[in-house]
Specification:
- The protein is α+β, with helices and mostly antiparallel strands and 326 residues long.
- 47% of the residues lie in helices and 14% in strands.
- Strands 1-7-2-5-8-9 form a six-stranded antiparallel β-sheet.
- Strand 3 and strand 4 form a beta hairpin.
- The two termini are 25 Å apart.
């Protein structure tokens, strides 16, 4: 699903908290040939350079662990108790926080069971083509760490303008006035420059991961061992807890079971290897699947297409991006 299709869906069903609205949304997504539980896995950019939109989540069920082929900048709009899982590290978000996620990095919000308000954010998607060109023309704010995660806290009044720049870009994309695409690109360049200034002036703070808990230590263990045959009993023995404790942690904090999470993490790694040109049969073994058949079934269930179809789509998209604009 491309971004403009997601926006149409959001306008059609403005409040998915209502059971009947949620059911309508899920039926519509299935009609499009996609699994509503894996919607964020299948999102694509509409623009060749920059896309921006606002998004709202009401529960953990709405956003599963996923990754993208593009860069993503998130601006947290409110204080709702949300945490953010990037790779194996967990961060507690508050209003004004900015999250920078490079391509191929697994991530998802972690929302409390009882939310006083939904999780709202502004989102910027930056294509690799845009990032490469920007880095060539200008001193890119993340140039030294372009492929690493950035977590910034902009809680000082001096840099409240960062949130306004995110909002302005979203407003341009929503109103679609003449020349809005160039306005979004120009606004994005201004935003990145302002982030650079704030970082250079040390007026923003780099967020530190939350104090390690059992779940965090398990996440690190999974990150180190997901390429091997990994069972819940292995993890339980390693941390001297019961299998039911591990299972409960994942259900309570992540909203999915242990094996589901491990499979999601493997498949995200598999997508990245496919994008890098690794032979598909080799990909299966390298990410922990003993046979290609198991990898094929899991990949198609998660993304709605086969590994080979994904490779073709990725290559076709890369070729279109590389071709000159007529």
């Amino acid at each position: 699903m491309r971004l403009h299709e997601l926006k149409q869906l959001a306008r059609a069903i403005p409040d998915p908290r209502a059971p009947e609205a949620l059911q309508t949304m899920q039926t519509y997504i299935r009609h499009l040939g996609m699994d509503p539980n894996h919607l964020y896995q299948e999102l694509e950019m509409t623009s060749r350079l920059v896309d921006t939109h606002r998004d709202t989540s009401y529960s953990n069920a709405q956003v599963q662990l996923h990754s993208h082929t593009f860069f993503e900048l998130l601006y947290c709009c409110n204080n709702c108790g949300a945490e953010y899982l990037v790779g194996s590290e967990r961060y507690r978000l508050q209003q004004g926080d900015i999250v920078f996620i490079p391509p191929g990095v697994s991530h998802r919000p972690l929302l409390p069971e009882q939310m006083t308000e939904p999780y709202r954010r502004y989102i910027l998607w930056l294509s690799q083509e845009f990032m490469e060109e920007y880095a060539r023309l200008f001193p890119y704010p993340f140039s030294e760490k372009q492929n690493t995660v950035g977590m910034l806290r902009t809680d000082e009044a001096t840099w409240e303008s960062l949130g306004e720049l995110f909002r302005r870009g979203v407003q341009e994309a929503e109103q679609c006035a003449d020349g809005w695409e160039s306005m979004v690109v120009g606004n994005t360049i201004t935003l990145l420059t302002q982030i650079k200034r704030a970082t250079a002036a040390r007026s923003v703070r780099t967020l530190e991961a939350e104090k390690s808990e059992l779940l965090d230590r398990i996440m690190v263990y999974i990150e180190e061992h997901y390429r091997t045959a990994l069972s819940i009993s292995d993890v339980a023995k390693h941390f001297f807890v019961s299998g039911s404790t591990v299972s409960h942690l994942f259900k309570q904090k992540i909203g999915v079971g242990f094996y589901r999470y491990v499979t999601q993490r493997r498949l995200i790694a598999g997508k990245t290897l496919i994008e890098r040109g690794t032979p598909i049969e080799t990909v299966a073994v390298r990410i922990g699947f003993p046979a290609y058949s198991g990898f094929y079934r899991a990949f198609k269930q998660e993304f709605g297409i086969s590994p080979r179809q994904y490779r073709k789509i990725f290559r076709d998209t890369a070729e279109k991006t590389a071709s000159p604009v007529s």
